[in-house]
UniProtKB/TrEMBL annotation:
Name listed for the protein in its UniProt record: Disease resistance protein RGA3
Domain Disease resistance protein winged helix: 373-444
PANTHER family (UniProt xref): DISEASE RESISTANCE PROTEIN RGA3 (PTHR36766:SF40), PLANT BROAD-SPECTRUM MILDEW RESISTANCE PROTEIN RPW8 (PTHR36766)
InterPro entries associated with the record: Apaf_helical, LRR_dom_sf, LRR_R13L4/SHOC2-like, NB-ARC, P-loop_NTPase, Rx_N, WH-like_DNA-bd_sf, WHD_DRP
Lineage, highest ranks first: Eukaryota, Viridiplantae, Streptophyta, Embryophyta, Tracheophyta
UniProt source species: Gossypium hirsutum
Length: 780
C-alpha cells in the first residue's frame, strides 16, 4: 500500500499548494505558470498510481478505502487546476495574445462453431408444424455463450428473410415493460418510433394493425422476467399473426424459457475444443501470423484456452488481450499468475473478463469504464463516445500530427480488437455505431462503482450522490438529484420533458459547477440563462433538437474551455454567438438542420482548432454582417462533411470561391455545394472551377447549380470519389461521363430537366478498346 499512501500525500500537498494561489496571480508571473505545469505532471503521476492499484482493489478492502479517498482528492485537485488554467487562458485572450490551436475502419463479427445450432433452429423456424399460429422458440444459455449472435445468425439468413412478411427485433434486458416492448416492436416493424404521447390502448391498436394476419418473425432478445403475469400480458398482443409466425426468445434462465414456451428450449453450450481453438487462434495470433505455428505459443495458448470454458465472449476477450503481448513469457505469466486465480466456474466469468480489463493500457481503462453510462443494449454512436472521452480528458495528444478525435478513434479500435465492443457497423462518413455485450456492461458497472450511475428512479436520484461524478438520467429526475460534483450529465431515455426548463437550469448552474459534459437535447428550451458562463469547466454542450431555441446568451464566449457545441436540429435557431472567435478551443460546431440560420458569425475563421463545421451559410445580402466565404480559408483541419449554402448570392464569386481554399482541406470527406435560389450576380453560377476540393474527397454533392459552362476540369482529379449527387432544376445540358473514376459506387443525377447528354471522352486502352467503364458502380 506504500505507493497509494505516497500518492495520497502527493495529492494533499497538491491541493495545499493550489490553495495558496489566487486567480489574480495567474498570468501575472511566469513562475506561477511553471508551478501549474509541474502540478499537472503530479496529477498525471497520481492518476497512474491510481490505475495501477485498481487490480488489487478487488480483494483488499484497505486498498479500496485508500483508492476512494485518493480519487476524491484527485478530482478536487483536477478541478482547481482547471480553474487556474481557464483563468490563465482568459488573461491571455484579454491581453490579445494569439492562440491557435478519418479515414474510417470497418469491423465485422464472425461466428465460429455454431453451424449445427443454426441448422437446428432453422428447422424449428422454417419446417416445424405447430398447432398454434405463433410458435415460440427459446434459446437458453449463460452469459457470453453467444445467444444473441446465434439469433442474429438465423434472423439474417436469406431463407428466413424470404419466409416472413414481417421481421422485428427487440432488445428487452433487465426491465420487462410491456409498453416499451410494444413501442420497440412498432419501431422495428416500421423504422419509425411511435408518438411518445400515445396511451397503451393506442399502441396496442397500432401493433395489431401491423402484425394482424401477417406471418411474422419476432426476436425478443435477453429476457430476464420470470413473472407469469407479465409474460401473459405481452403474449396476448402477439397471437394475431398468421399461421407459421415465430418468436425467438433468448434468455439466461431456464425458468423464463418454461414460462414463455411449451416447447423444449434450444440449450446453447460452450464451443467444442476445435471450434474454441479456431476462434482463439484467429484473434490471439492476428497481429503475428507466424506465431500460430510456433509450438511454444500453441502449447501455452491451449492451456489458457482450457480456462475459458468454451465461452465465446471469454475466448474473444482473453485472446484479444494476448494478441498485444509479444513474448511467450508474457503469455506464461498471464496463465500462471492471473488466470490461475480464477476457478472454472460459470459464475466466475466476470472475474475472468476483468483480467482483460486489468491488462488494458492505462489510457483505455477510463474510456472503457465511462461506457457504463450507456444503458444495456444501447446503440452507441462512436463519434459521440469519442467526443465524450475527449471532454473528460481521457484522450491524450502526444502526436500533434493527429487530432484528438483521430487518437480517440484509435482508442476505440483498440477496445474493439480486445472484444470490449461488438456489432460495430459503419453507416456512412462519420457515422459508426456499436454495442456492448451485457456481461461487458456488467464489468464496466462493477469497476465504476459509485462514481457513475444510471438514474432512472426517484429512489436513486434522492440517494446521497456526493461521490457520483458521472450520470445518465431520466430528464424528469434532474432537479431531484443530490450530487454536487458531477462532471457528466447525460440524459436517458431519449424523451422530451416539457416544463422543466427553469428547474433544470437552476440545478445545473447552482450545483454542477464542475461539469465537463452537459447534454440537454429536446427539452423544449426557449432560452438559456446568461449565467451559463459559470460552467467554466464545460467542454461538451449538447442542446440539439430544442426547436424553440433561437439564440444563445452572449456570455457563452466566456466558456473558453468549450470544445464541442451541438445545436443540430434547433429548427428556429437564428444566430450563432458573436465573439465566437473567443472560443479558442472549439473543435466541433454542430448546426445541421438549423433552418432559421441566415449567416455565420464574423470571426469564425479564427477558430483554428475547428475540426467539424457541417454547414456554412452565406449571408444572402450582407445585411446581417455575417462572415464571408474567405473565413473558410484557414480552416484547413476541417473533417467529415462541409455543406456550403446560398452560393448563388455570392458577389465577386471567382475571388470569393477561390478564397475558400477547399483544395487545402485534405481531411474533408464530403462536400455539399448548394446554390439555392438564383442570386443577383450571375457569375456565381459559373464558378465551379474555383471551388476545387482536395483529391481525398469521398462524396461530392452539387445542388441547384445553374451554370451553362462546362463542369470543372478538377472532376477527373477526384479519383477517391465514392458518391456523386447532382440534383435540383438547373441549366446544365451535359455532364462528364465520370466513367473512369475508379472508386465511384453511387452516381445520382436528379431533376436536371435540361440535361441532354453525358460526355464520352473515355481514354482508350492499348488495343483501341475503352478502359474499364464504371469499375466500382453499384446499381441501387
Amino acid at each position: 500500500m506504500g505507493a497509494e499512501a505516497i500518492a495520497f500525500d502527493l495529492a494533499v500537498e497538491l491541493i495545499t499548494k493550489l490553495s495558496s494561489f489566487t486567480l489574480s496571480q495567474i498570468g501575472l508571473c511566469w513562475n506561477v505558470k511553471d508551478d501549474l505545469h509541474d502540478l499537472k505532471s503530479t496529477v498525471s503521476t497520481i492518476k497512474a498510481v491510481l490505475l495501477d492499484a485498481e487490480e488489487r482493489s478487488v480483494t483488499s478492502q484497505l486498498v479500496k478505502d485508500w483508492l476512494e479517498k485518493l480519487r476524491d482528492v484527485l478530482y478536487d485537485a483536477d478541478d482547481l487546476l482547471d480553474d487556474f488554467s481557464a483563468e490563465a487562458l482568459r488573461k491571455d485572450l484579454l491581453g490579445g495574445n494569439k492562440l491557435t490551436k478519418e479515414q474510417t475502419h470497418s469491423f465485422k463479427d464472425k461466428i465460429i462453431g455454431r453451424d449445427d445450432d443454426k441448422a437446428a433452429l432453422l428447422k424449428l423456424v422454417l419446417e416445424f408444424e405447430s398447432e398454434d399460429n405463433v410458435y415460440i422458440i427459446p434459446i437458453v444459455g449463460f452469459g457470453g455463450l453467444g445467444k444473441t449472435a446465434l439469433a442474429q445468425f438465423v434472423y439474417n439468413d436469406e431463407m428466413v428473410k424470404n419466409c416472413f412478411e414481417l421481421m422485428m427485433w427487440v432488445c428487452v434486458s433487465d426491465v420487462f415493460d410491456v409498453k416499451i416492448i410494444v413501442e420497440n416492436m412498432i419501431k422495428s416493424a416500421t423504422g419509425k418510433a411511435p408518438d411518445q404521447n400515445l396511451e397503451m390502448d393506442q399502441l396496442q391498436k397500432q401493433l395489431r394493425e401491423k402484425i394482424g394476419g401477417k406471418k411474422y418473425l419476432l426476436v425478443l432478445d435477453d429476457i430476464w422476467n420470470d413473472e407469469w403475469g407479465n409474460w401473459v400480458n405481452l403474449k396476448e398482443l402477439l397471437v394475431g399473426g398468421a399461421k407459421g409466425s415465430r418468436i425467438i426468445v433468448t434468455t439466461r434462465s431456464s425458468k423464463v424459457a418454461k414460462i414463455t414456451s411449451k416447447c423444449q428450449p434450444h440449450v446453447l453450450k460452450g464451443l467444442s475444443d476445435d471450434d474454441a481453438w479456431s476462434l482463439f487462434k484467429e484473434i490471439a495470433f492476428e497481429q503475428r501470423r507466424t506465431d500460430s505455428t510456433d509450438s511454444g505459443f500453441v502449447e501455452i495458448g491451449k492451456l489458457i484456452l482450457e480456462r475459458c470454458c468454451g465461452v465465446p465472449l471469454v475466448i474473444r476477450t482473453i485472446a484479444g488481450t494476448l494478441s498485444f503481448k509479444e513474448t511467450k513469457n508474457e503469455w506464461l505469466s498471464f496463465k500462471d499468475n492471473e488466470l490461475a486465480k480464477i476457478s472454472q466456474n460459470e459464475c466466475e466469468i466476470l472475474l475472468t473478463l476483468k483480467l482483460s480489463y486489468d491488462h488494458l493500457p492505462s489510457r483505455l481503462k477510463h474510456c472503457f469504464v465511462y461506457c457504463r453510462l450507456y444503458p444495456k443494449d444501447y446503440v452507441i454512436r462512436v463519434q459521440t463516445l469519442v467526443q465524450l472521452w475527449i471532454a473528460q480528458g481521457f484522450v491524450k495528444q502526444f502526436n500533434q500530427s493527429k487530432s484528438l478525435e483521430e487518437i480517440g478513434f484509435g482508442y476505440f479500435k483498440d477496445l474493439v480488437e480486445r472484444s470490449f465492443f461488438q456489432e460495430v457497423v459503419e453507416y456512412g462518413i462519420g457515422d459508426m455505431r456499436c454495442k456492448m455485450h451485457d456481461l461487458i456492461h456488467d464489468l464496466a458497472e462493477s469497476i465504476a462503482g459509485a462514481e457513475s450511475s444510471i438514474v432512472h428512479s426517484n429512489k436513486i436520484a434522492s440517494k446521497d450522490g456526493e461521490k457520483c461524478r458521472h450520470i445518465s438520467i431520466n430528464p424528469s429526475l434532474i432537479p431531484l438529484f443530490k450530487g454536487k460534483k458531477l462532471r457528466t450529465l447525460l440524459q436517458f431515455p431519449n424523451k422530451r420533458v416539457p416544463n422543466l426548463s427553469d428547474e433544470t437550469w437552476n440545478f445545473v448552474i447552482a450545483k454542477c459547477r464542475c461539469l465537463r459534459v452537459l447534454e440537454l437535447y429536446d427539452f423544449d428550451f426557449k432560452m438559456i440563462p446568461r449565467s451559463i458562463h459559470k460552467l467554466k469547466h464545460l467542454r461538451y454542450l449538447d442542446l440539439s433538437c430544442n426547436e424553440n431555441l433561437k439564440s444563445l446568451p452572449k456570455s457563452i464566449y466566456k466558456i473558453q474551455n468549450l470544445q464541442m457545441l451541438k445545436l443540430d436540429w434547433c429548427d428556429r435557431f437564428e444566430e450563432l454567438p458573436k465573439k465566437i472567435e473567443k472560443l479558442v478551443n472549439l473543435t466541433h460546431l454542430g448546426c445541421e438542420g438549423c433552418n432559421g440560420l441566415t449567416h455565420m458569425p464574423r470571426g469564425i475563421g479564427k477558430l483554428s482548432s475547428l475540426e467539424t463545421l457541417r454547414m456554412f451559410i452565406v449571408d444572402k445580402d450582407g445585411s446581417h454582417g455575417g462572415a464571408d466565404l474567405s473565413e473558410l480559408s484557414g480552416l484547413n483541419i476541417l473533417r467529415g462533411e462541409l455543406r456550403i449554402t446560398n452560393l448563388g448570392f455570392v458577389k465577386n464569386a471567382k475571388e470569393k470561391f477561390k478564397a475558400t481554399n477547399l483544395k487545402e482541406k485534405q481531411h474533408l470527406r464530403s462536400l455539399v455545394l448548394e446554390w439555392n435560389r438564383r442570386g443577383d450576380d450571375n457569375d456565381a453560377n459559373k464558378s465551379l472551377e474555383d471551388l476545387q476540393p482536395h483529391p481525398n474527397l469521398k462524396e461530392l454533392c452539387i445542388r441547384g447549380w445553374r451554370g451553362d459552362a462546362k463542369f470543372p476540369s478538377w472532376i477527373s482529379l477526384l479519383t477517391n470519389l465514392v458518391v456523386i449527387r447532382i440534383w435540383d432544376p438547373s441549366n446544365v445540358k451535359h455532364v462528364p461521363s465520370f466513367a473512369q473514376l475508379p472508386c465511384l459506387k453511387e452516381l445520382s443525377i436528379t431533376d436536371c430537366t435540361e440535361l441532354e447528354y453525358m460526355d464520352d471522352n473515355s481514354p482508350k486502352g492499348g488495343q483501341g478498346e475503352a478502359q474499364s467503364f464504371f469499375p466500382s458502380l453499384k446499381v441501387l
